[in-house]
Amino acid sequence: MAEDAAVPMDTQEEAAPVAEAAPANEPMDVMTALQEVLKNALIEDGLARGLHECAKALDKRQAHLCVLASNCDEASYVKLVEALCAEHSINLMKVDDNKKLGEWAGLCKLDKDGTPRKVVGCSCVVVKEFGREGPARQVLMDHFKKESS
Question: CA angle 136-128-69, nearest 5°?
Fold first, then answer.
């Protein structure tokens, strides 16, 4: 009898995150698309995080996309990343907060509720492997085409 009671509760917990997803008919904004692309790349082990990994990936031209935090306080860091992106024609995108970027790049612990704890700031992330195709990737590509025009 106890086994029957546990089954509906498990399905109910699994159904809750699906309800939080954005409706399909609503257009996705660029930051949400970026978050989705970073999550997919993290799953595929296609992210380089930190200056050393990012500089190597950018210099070897393995990068498809570079994300830089705007609140990075080291000017030479920003200058290096921007120069490497410009030299190799790699799309560069800036986000407001390095803590937010660190959370998106998987540099945090999640508690049992799924809330991020102990988030480590990350000033630069490079996507080497996008992972699966999806609408988020298309939104980012359209954004870069619009920016370059």
Answer: 70
